């Protein structure tokens, strides 16, 4: 049996769609209720629905052979998993944003609110800008508006949240998309896993096979 950990929430529907397009019968997840484990004996597949960061944990520990998770999470929490495919879903980007009058390149020490301290620190360090990170769990856009920080580093998808809160993007840091990750021992042990990956690759049409961790 192959176990796949899926990120519960935003990218769940598109992930299931890719699996269905690859020929897997995903009907058993249609009426999922509050279930978090789905076993399909006929297809020899088991799905775990977990939080994004936990996808990487389950794969690293070899409990899940494969996982689907955003590159934002992988960047922030690098680990010993193989990154196999860019699934081209869950598309968004990391951006630096603030109120329009702010200058993020003034070489003054700046306070940045973010849920993603690693990407924010790496970005500003690469620009030779000194930063103090203020860790925020959500509604990050409020921080520069009410004076908690100078700016934010956050995910931007449509840009609606920024506009609604009077913020503008100063710079895009990196594109974010969902990735298929794998446990390396699982791949060596079970050749069926590579066959499954090939089927997904045929759907997403992506050549990328990169090592991470
Ligand atoms: N507007 C967006 N906001 C956040 N993530 C997005 C957005 N658009 C696409 N994504 C991608 O979707 C993935 C899953 O997001 P989702 O909000 O479901 O889980 P999460 O990041 O664990 O959030 P939470 O902690 O709020 O549950 C993210 O890791 C990111 O790669
Ligand atoms: O560009 P947009 O389409 O407006 O999307 C971006 C918003 O979505 C995410 O927040 P989320 O909805 O996950 O809520 P959160 O603030 O609780 O993290 C992200 O942190 C932004 O706030």
From TrEMBL:
Residues 52-201 form the ATP phosphoribosyltransferase catalytic domain. The keyword Metal-binding does not apply. InterPro entries: ATP_PRibTrfase_cat (IPR013820), ATP_PRibTrfase_HisG (IPR001348), ATP_PRibTrfase_HisG_short (IPR024893). It holds the Pfam family HisG. It is found in: Cytoplasm. One of its GO terms (cellular component) is cytoplasm. Catalyzes the condensation of ATP and 5-phosphoribose 1-diphosphate to form N'-(5'-phosphoribosyl)-ATP (PR-ATP). Has a crucial role in the pathway because the rate of histidine biosynthesis seems to be controlled primarily by regulation of HisG enzymatic activity. Lacks the C-terminal regulatory region which is replaced by HisZ. This is ATP phosphoribosyltransferase. It comes from Pseudolactococcus laudensis. The gene is hisG.
